[in-house]
Design goal:
Layout (H helix, E strand, L loop, with lengths): L3 H5 L1 E8 L5 H11 L18 H17 L2 E6 L2 E6 L8 H8 L4 E7 L6 H12 L4 E6 L8 H12 L2 E4 L1 E4 L7 E4 L4 E4 L10 E4 L6 H7 L2 H15 L5 H5 L3 E6 L8 H11 L6 E2 L4 E2 L7 E8 L9 E9 L2 E2 L3 E4 L4 E4 L4 E4 L2 E4 L2 E2 L4 E6 L8 E3 L10 E3 L3 E7 L5 H13 L4 E5 L4 E6 L3 H14 L3 E6 L3 E7 L2 H10 L4 E3 L5 E5 L2 H10 L3 E4 L1 E3 L2
Helix pairs in contact: 11-12
The structure holds guanosine-5'-diphosphate (GDP).
Length: about 525
């Protein structure tokens, strides 16, 4: 039986940002607070900086590391925190989108100099789709950045969410003095280059307290004025609105200087949701239910090329997962048991006997899982809402070694099950089209086909704009469309039809000509 307290004490979240905004630095500071690591510099940035081919060699080398840091579990103030890592490189954005389905909330890091960047917008788009609660951390306040009020407007405009500052900066850049914590009503004073984790917090009765003048001198008037404006412009903070994903609380700080980090962490623990009921194909499933269930949101490839092992990352949604117990793999209709499920505590992996809702565990897999798979104690339902987005680069697979066509087929199937890329099949001739969001994946696929499956292939460029999933209530029009546009139709791995649009113009024409057909850039697995 799963106890309420095990559920209540868990917070499962991800930190997201545009590359370079400070995600790795903030993650590291969190781990320091959690005692999960002892020294700064222990967390590797999973960012890839070089050109395509050498990048991939780099990934290969770092594979062990990135698996270990895929999930970072630690305890802080009696709370079990599961921090899920997301790849920084935009070519792996799909991996990030899927990880976001496994969390209950996110912390979004924004660089105060650069403001809202492209990748931030996309990631937030995914959070908005699922109404995931978001807390914003405006980072790098030690650098001269944008005016904080302008930044708030930019966040609201570009991220399509209301914001509510819970702290406010006293100056910025070289004059940065710290923040006034609106939520707790205290002053948090900034010391650059502080490496220890104690902090300078001054309790005040309110901002009119004469202490504020003696500490801040000339800046006292400005912060009083700013905070008055904040209180006037923004609604009072409402935890429920935050939890529904309607309003994002905002904090200011500097991750590098460990400033404002404990402040956001403490508030996060207080307001962020513990595991919530989740939607499945049949019904809502609540974490308190006795029967275990969970879903696979990520598959990580071979750690050891000699064994074709993979690790499937499973998010537990209800009940208690137990080692060596038989569970139902709903899609395959078969039972499996797991003798060595692993949990991830910062950089260590260890075998666990049981795990609770909100936890993420690694299951060794020999090719039975694909992304979106559900495990239960027998009931047939599938967790929903794992998105696939239309790829941006398309290439046809051409077998370069006819003796190895079986290996190629198997390799392509397994790699696309892992979510490395999307596979579309086009008739006649069963032509295989691989779609990705970045160039890098083609190198990854080629390399892995060769090293893991002994197959070789080349890719033929296909100048396509997007693949749109098509659906319609109007059966006759739908069938007409499939027939008339047969040349531009392919099927994804779930057998769903997509329209391969060559240009945006062509797609617009189709949308106009076939008003009963719905063209979507996104599909949900299951
Ligand atoms: P990520 O790509 O989002 O993971 O970003 P990183 O954490 O790797 O940070 C990118 C760069 O910004 C690194 O050089 C950090 O040292 C630097 N950085 C992170 N936080 C701060 C900060 O608060 N102030 C300043 N000045 N630099 C920071």
């Amino acid at each position: 039986m799963v106890s309420q307290s095990e559920i209540q004490k868990r917070r499962t979240f991800a930190i997201i940002s545009h590359p370079d905004a400070g995600k790795t630095t903030l993650t590291e500071k969190f781990l320091l607070f959690g005692g999960a690591i002892q020294t700064a510099g222990a967390v590797k940035n999973n960012k890839i900086k070089k050109t395509a081919t050498s990048d991939f060699m780099e990934i290969e080398k770092q594979r062990g590391i990135s698996v270990a840091t895929s999930v970072m579990g630690f305890e802080y103030n009696g709370v079990k925190i599961n921090l899920l890592d997301t790849p920084g490189h935009k070519d792996f954005a799909e991996d990030t989108y899927r990880t976001l389905t496994a969390v209950d909330s996110v912390i979004l890091v924004v660089d105060c100099v650069k403001g809202v960047e492209e990748q931030t917008e996309r990631l937030m788009g995914v959070c908005r789709m699922r109404n995931t609660p978001v807390i914003v951390f405006v980072n790098k306040m030690d650098r001269p950045g944008k005016d904080p009020f302008d930044l708030m407007d930019e966040l609201e405009e570009k991220l399509n969410i209301r914001v509510r500052p819970l702290s406010w900066p006293i100056n910025g850049g070289p004059d940065f003095k710290g923040v006034y914590n609106i939520y707790r009503n205290n002053l948090n004073l900034f010391n650059a280059n502080k490496t220890s984790i104690e902090r300078d917090i001054v309790s005040i009765s309110d901002l009119q307290d004469p202490q504020v003048d003696s500490i801040l001198g000339r800046d006292a008037a400005k912060i009083r004025e700013d905070v008055e404006l904040v209180e006037g412009v923004y609604d009072t903070f409402n935890k429920e609105a935050y939890r529904k994903g309607e309003v994002a609380p905002v904090f200011f700080g500097s991750a590098l200087n460990n400033f404002g980090v404990q402040e956001i962490l403490d508030t996060f623990l207080e307001i962020a949701p513990s595991p919530l009921p989740r939607k499945t194909s049949e019904r809502m499933v609540s974490p308190e239910e006795n029967a275990f269930s969970g879903f696979v949101f990520k598959i990580h490839a071979n750690l050891d090329p000699k064994h074709r092992d993979r690790i499937a990352f499973l998010r537990i949604c209800s009940g208690v997962f137990e080692r060596n117990k038989f569970y139902q793999h709903v899609r395959l209709g078969r039972t499996f048991r797991f003798t060595n499920p692993t949990s991830f505590m910062a950089q260590e992996k260890s075998i666990i006997d049981s795990a609770y809702p909100g936890d993420v565990i690694g299951l060794y897999d020999t090719g039975n899982f694909k992304i979106g798979d559900t495990l239960t104690e027998g009931e047939s339902f599938m967790y929903q809402g794992i998105p696939s987005f239309s790829p941006e680069i398309f290439r046809e697979v051409v077998n370069a070694d006819p003796m190895k066509s079986k290996q190629l087929e198997k390799g392509i199937n397994q790699l696309t099950d892992e979510g490395v890329a999307q596979l579309f099949t086009k008739q006649p001739g069963n032509r295989k089209i691989i779609g990705t969001v970045g160039e890098l994946q083609f190198d990854v696929i080629k390399y892995r086909l060769q090293h893991e499956y002994g197959a070789s292939c080349t890719f033929h460029a296909m100048p396509l704009y997007k693949a749109c999933w098509i659906t319609s209530e109007n059966k006759t029009e739908f069938e007409n469309f499939l027939r008339q546009k047969g040349n531009h139709i392919a099927y994804d791995k779930d057998g769903l039809p997509v329209y391969l649009a060559e240009t945006k113009g062509m797609l617009d024409i189709m949308i106009r000509h076939y008003p009963d057909i719905d063209f979507s850039f996104m599909s949900e697995h299951n």
